[in-house]
Amino acid sequence: MESSVTIQDKKSFISWFLGEFRLKKRESTWILKYLLNHQEILENVHFVHDANLCPRGIVMSSQCTEDKPFCFYKNHLETVDAEKTFHDIRLNKHESLYIQLNFKNARQNALYAAVLEENPFKDELIPEEDSKIAEGILEHTLREYEKNECLKMIDDALDRHDKEAFRIWADRLEKLNINN
Predict the structure, then answer these.
(1) Which Gene3D superfamilies does this chain map to (predicted)?
(2) What integer pLDDT is reported at residue 87 of this predicted model?
(3) In whole angstroms, what is the distance from residue 83 CA to residue 28 CA?
């Protein structure tokens, strides 16, 4: 993934961040300082939300949050061992590395927003529970619509004294009520 954020912008942001916040885990500070001094790695760094969804992601938290201090995710495995993370960063300089920083008012911070990129691994699909609720509402709405249509057709059949149409629509309404 090619970054739309320049290396200089990333460096400026990391420098600002390190000056403003204390991270819960000192190794997080070391990693960010290491990135500042290694341009070839910084080229492949992407600041994102939900780094845990990425094939190679780090979540670091400042002391002013309730979030967990540090976690490294690689191919759906996770570790809190910052030394293993540092080793992986050094060995895989040319692989994309996705970083999520948790700090006070991060979502409202203009400097963070300037370096944030869209997470290509974030699934934008509706969560399964929400999908089931929506499906249930849709099914209920369709059943109610069909019932109302049957009632209209029954009324129409009664107005025309059409016994056959009345029986067809009444049977259909009964089946809808039974399946409810």
Answers:
(1) Uncharacterised family UPF0302, N-terminal domain, Virus Scaffolding Protein, Chain A
(2) 94
(3) 10
